[in-house]
Specification:
It contains six helices and five strands. It is of the alpha/beta class and 162 residues long. It has one domain: HUPs (Rossmann fold, 3-Layer(aba) Sandwich). Strand 1, helix 1 and strand 2 form a beta-alpha-beta unit.
Length: 162
């Protein structure tokens, strides 16, 4: 069985993430989406809410499992018997960072490959960080995230402003 892991903060999950998940799930018998916390980022949503959103938005993909993790990526991959890590690339800056991470991960465990998928051209500019910034200034985000996620973002912002 070919198992892949797709790690990320998914704060919030975007149409770009979903594109990578759908395409990546076709490459695996099982794709484990690992929702994690990045200490360098200040999330809008806690891990439980992000898990809920990712599960809701991927419920129609049969071979996807969504779990949280807070460990080294290679430890997470081994714990799930993964043979590859899936990563999405939007731009050259992503490639430079991801290339370095793939090299470090290979040093930690050369049995786990890193597979890069280029973002769909129409989705390349989408980043969770930018979605949140647009929303905080009252801009429309419905072109970047699923409708229910847009409502989740609006609710979170309403809670911040109360």
């Amino acid at each position: 069985m070919r198992i892949g892991v797709y790690p990320g903060t998914f704060d919030p999950i975007t149409l770009g993430h979903l594109d990578i998940i759908r395409r990546g799930s076709a490459l695996a018998d099982k794709l484990v989406i690992g929702v994690t916390t990045n200490s360098a980022k200040s999330p809008m949503f806690d891990v439980e809410k992000r898990l809920e959103m990712v599960r809701r938005e991927t419920a129609d993909i049969d071979n996807v499992e969504v779990v949280s993790f807070n460990s080294l990526l290679m430890d997470f991959a081994v714990a799930h018997n993964a043979s590859f890590v899936l990563r999405g690339l939007r731009a050259v800056a992503d490639f430079e960072y991801e290339y370095q991470m793939a090299g470090m991960n290979q040093q930690l465990n050369d049995d786990v490959e890193t597979v890069f998928l280029m973002a769909d051209v129409s989705l390349q500019p989408i980043a969770s960080r930018l979605v949140k910034e647009i929303a905080r200034y009252g801009g429309p985000i419905d072109k970047f995230v699923p409708a229910e996620v847009a409502r989740d973002v609006a609710a979170a912002l309403a809670g911040e402003q109360s």
